[in-house]
Design brief:
The complex is a heterodimer of chains A (88) and B (248). With 88 residues, chain A is mainly beta. Chain A has one helix and eight strands. A five-stranded antiparallel β-sheet of chain A has the order 1-4-5-6-7, with no helix packed on it. Chain A has a three-stranded antiparallel β-sheet with strand order 3-2-8, with no helix packed on it. Chain A is globular, with a radius of gyration of 12 Å. The N and C termini of chain A lie far apart (40 Å). Chain B has two domains: 103 residues, Translation factors (Elongation Factor Tu (Ef-tu), domain 3), CATH 2.40.30; 127 residues, Rossmann fold, CATH 3.40.50. In chain B, the strands form two sheets. A six-stranded antiparallel β-sheet of chain B has the order 4-3-6-1-2-5. In chain B, strands 9-8-7-10-11 form a five-stranded parallel β-sheet, with helices on both faces. The chains are: A mainly beta (88), B alpha/beta (248). At the A-B interface, β1 and α1 of A face β3, β6 and β11 of B.
Amino acid sequence: MKTEDLKLDGNAIGGLLLELFGLELTAATSVCGSCGAQGYVGTLEVYVNAPGVVGRCRHCEAVMIRVVRAGNRTWLDLSGTRSLELAS
Amino acid sequence: MAGAAVLGRLTWLVTEVTGAVLETPRVRTLFLDAEGWLGHRAGQHVDVRLTAEDGYQAERSYSIASAPQDGLAITVERLDDGEVSPYLVDEARDGDRFEVRGPIGGYFVWDGTDDAPLLLVAGGSGVVPLMSMIRHRAAVGSSAPARLLYSSRTHEDVIYRAELDELKARNDGLVVFHTLTRSQPEGWTGYARRIDEEILREVAWPPADEPRVFVCGSTRFVDTAADGLVALGYAPESIRTERFGATG
């Protein structure tokens, strides 16, 4: 299987984000920290087959979100995300 | 996590199977009764969690097939080497219990509150969340004209075939275009190849009509459809997509 076939989108981690933040985030707008592209979290390129979950910018492919879970701990890296905007 | 418990939707809900329909030899719809379920929007999905006797847990996402008016039903395609789908398609029976979390998703949803044309493009079981939208459209009597372009391998693999025929026959603005990519029955008048720009040009609304666009299928299918629509002049951000993976 090619890596390309393993690419999902942000919808696929809606449940995980809901669990971590207690909020529906797929319709939130994120801004890429690398290229500044703005888009719905639901449109991120997501790979869940890595040792954790990786979400990349659809435009420049920079990593915007990383989630790794081990036992009862969760490690969340959002350093590649400049901002998240939630509609109320 | 006392705070989390207040938000009921965060938690896994014990769910009972209340009915099942075999849609195709490898696809089955399960009707579910989830304790504490708060309802859903057309296009959303749920996470399903199975727990083995030894405590091993497996989680997968499945699209909700039912209209919001009709309770919770998921349609699942069996992936033969999967951990969850073979149970849901072949084994689960009335009264069986497992856990679901959701509804999930706020991006790939259609609420049927405006009359903009609807363009739905489905590859295989990617039709499931789109069927929720089609059922919702019928349930609310929406006047939004809708076109479904639906790619299946063979005639036998077409999920919801009879219901789509029936909805189409109502002549209420829903038009269904099938393409069968692997084999076609005798006398087939639909498309007989993988979707391409030419099919999209024939089926899609002119971009100037500003349709709501939802595309769901495998990654490759979604990329082909989205690229084709962009080539026809659709703005990339106007195309809402959902890709599903190869783990079941």
